[in-house]
């Protein structure tokens, strides 16, 4: 049987799937891991985890089905991350993760001052924020001169796997467009003047599209993974975009809503929409543009409550259901790791308002679910104000297994959500891209055949007025508390 192997390196785990050419998942495997947080605002991971877990997962999946023929490999990973390696491909320091890592504030301010916010937006589409990969590269140059002196190449998780598998040094256009300010979005190319100014000693990776072939599995990679020599490997891209592919939410007018450790939204269109509070990027495919946003915590927040209360998810969900809309007068700002879009505030912090001695853990959990939903609504309204034409919403990720969370987000946002049959996410999308890359002419797979929509979540109109009021309070609570919260964040950095 012919199949493809898809592997995605996420924030809290690496997942892999072996998928038949009709879209059936033959086997799956997961390896849990944790990020490192050596200082407030720093979020890192050592890159050997990515390759070690890929090797382990590939071995497990191949052992489970030794009779299959792997026709191609798909890779995906969280991002935009910054992993710098030396001339021998040895990492010079741990990888700096995406917008949840907020260390590069000084570099963002300096680069914005030097280049000009209007020019940055004209070239790359977005202002510089904690999501900007170029600012993280500049941080290493400024703060770690020994590591910088050795650095010669730049990777993200997907392209690190592609490098280890094939020897190719590539980066996809979508990921490159988040390496702000080094990418020219209209010309779909590296912007040499600014690359040379801030990253001149780093070799530019060759740009391709996510589903393009990066190369073939080498003898050395085959020996450790069990994947046959010569097997094609795609370039891959950032996990949120691969998740959108996995559910068919990458067409014009689609919005992909990813439920995970963080929450991510990707709206797809043809025009380059620019707004300072969101991220303008290249799409996963030629001719598309995205307006994207992300919450810094979602599943991470609910997991924090679970661990803090010593409960399990079924208990908390049952109690949250009983708590009801509004969580008996609780309102949470979910900014427990700062916040990305649309407020772009790395010094934002979590706030729990309205707490009394009568509240229990179920109320707290309900308020956390509503907080993420209010954050999603804030992003969607900002996207639409910028001109995004959002015609359909497709939900994906581990959080879609929780019916209450899905319903709360539909009720708060007023949006219908479509949920596909398979919500395993980016690893499945990577397998689909791999299958598409090697399909013969006229025989390319269709994602709606692989993964049809099986559930539709409709907002409950009874709750509309209440959640409109709660959203207004949510926005006002941030504005009213941010001065004090910023002072506390400064204290945390000092500690």
UniProtKB/TrEMBL annotation:
Keywords: Carbohydrate metabolism, Kinase, Transferase, Xylose metabolism. Belongs to the FGGY kinase family. It comes from Microbacterium murale. Residues 256-437 form the Carbohydrate kinase FGGY C-terminal domain. It is an enzyme of class 2 (transferase). This is Xylulokinase. InterPro entries: ATPase_NBD, Carb_kinase_FGGY, Carb_kinase_FGGY_CS, FGGY_C, FGGY_Carb_Kinase, FGGY_N. PROSITE patterns: FGGY_KINASES_2. Its EC number is 2.7.1.17. The keyword Mitochondrion does not apply. It comes from the Bacteria. GO terms for molecular function: D-xylulokinase activity. Residues 4-241 form the Carbohydrate kinase FGGY N-terminal domain. Pfam families: FGGY_C, FGGY_N.
